[in-house]
Amino acid sequence: MSEKRLKNRVCIVGTGLTKFGNHFDKSYEDLLSEASVTAIKDAGIDRNRIDAAWLGTAFPDAGVYKGRSGMDLAEPLGLFDIPVTRVSNYCATGADAIRGAVNSLLAGESDVALAVGVEKLRDRPPQESIVKMMVEMGHPFYQKGFTAPGTFAMYARRHFIKNGVTPDDLADISVKNHSNAFLNPGAHYRKEITRQEVLESVMVADPLHVLDSCPTTDGAAAVVMVRAEDAGRFSGTPVWLKAIELSVSTGWDLPYFDSSYDFLSFRATKVAAKKAYREAGITDPVKQIDLAEVHDCFSIVELLSYEDLGFCPPGKGKVLLRSGATRRNGEIPVNVSGGLLSCGHPVGATGVRMVCEVAGHLRGTVGKRQIPGAKTGLTHTIGGPGAVASVIILGNEP
Question: pLDDT per residue over 140-165, tens digit each?
């Protein structure tokens, strides 16, 4: 978005979440409806006030075969005769659904917009896994042997060699996030763990262990948004969008076949963050942002995101981590919800869940995990081979 086009012009007036976890007793429609109805009730409106909606599902072919079209949102909610758009953009899917709703409001096409993210990843046999889909449907030169843990393990090794990061550092990120999730009733895993437990858990792709990795999870999240001038007509406490930026900065074959690539950062995150900071007037993110929900599908991704988001200089992620600055009581609390490592990662829902989490802190409604006095928060998702990233900045006042 161009500079100052969004800032303070759109508000979130309703949020809704399901618990993230194993939902073998609930369907895709059940999860979608639970989150959406909660958000609509939070906004204090009837669902017939919704005049446009966006549905984020990244992998409709991963077992449940739902989320291929906007009709999979329209039918369970009875939202007929309005535009309903389905969005898929890897792990940035939910954030991109919000972006679509925001643009509709800014354009005057809609007055009350709903953005929903949902993914049901547990109801599938191994033969229908995401890895299997990529191998069978992708180009064999790119896909044979490609896995998410294998890819991010390369980044971990480069940070070990170049920047002195250690397995203990990665384990400490998982320990921090699991400790935070102990206070989050909506998280998939709510159990505190130790560094030793992380290091002794099963190795997935050296040096990443099981407890360095997010679980496969079901869940849904939703937000209701309106233009700022209409916020007073709704009962939900408004949360102001300061910026929302999305960047697609590489393709499948890059950067991994670029001999000059150093495997130390993600360009997409840097580009999205730079644009979002400019839009929101952020010049010192550590001092101006009170909490951040960042992508931690694997522990190494949180650490390198510290650098890509400008929380510290390049190569100093381990210094920021070891200082305690990213803990719940630190200077820049990161993943107070428990992050993907503990909440899980129902891919289409994650970006919306992060926004709901930050909005809860800005509203002061998240109980014991509340960051006192929180006024500004950031969410960050990155997906695919590090190709696509979203950064959203929210505030509790215009």
Answer: 555 556 678 888 999 999 999 999 99
At residue 252, the 3 state secondary structure works out as: coil
Burial class (CB in 10 A: 0-12, 13-18, 19+), 258: exposed
Q: What is the pLDDT of residues 88-108, one digit of tens each?
A: 999 999 999 999 999 999 999
For residue 344 the two structure tokens come to: 């899980």
Reduced to 3 states (helix: H, G, I; strand: E, B; else coil), residue 321 is: helix
CB atoms within 10 A of CB 78: 9
What integer pLDDT is reported at residue 380 of this predicted model? 98
- Does CATH place domain 128-217+242-395 in 3.40.47.10? yes
Q: Is 139 known to be catalytic?
A: no
- Tell me the torsion sign for CA atoms 42, 44, 46, 49: negative
Catalytic: which of 209, 345, 361, 380?
A: 345
Counted residue by residue, the chain has a size of 398
Q: What is the pLDDT of residue 137?
A: 62
Domain spans of the chain?
Answer: 10-127+218-233, 128-217+242-395
pTM: 0.95
343 is catalytic: no
Handedness of CA 23, 208, 347, 333 (dihedral sign): positive
Contact 39, 137 (CB under 8 A): no
| Same fold flag, 10-127+218-233 and 128-217+242-395 | yes
11, 23, 91, 295: the catalytic one is: 91
**Spans in the chain with pLDDT lower than 70:** 1-4, 63, 125-146, 251-255
> Tell me, what's the pLDDT at 132?
64
Q: Check: CATH 3.40.47.10 for 10-127+218-233?
A: yes
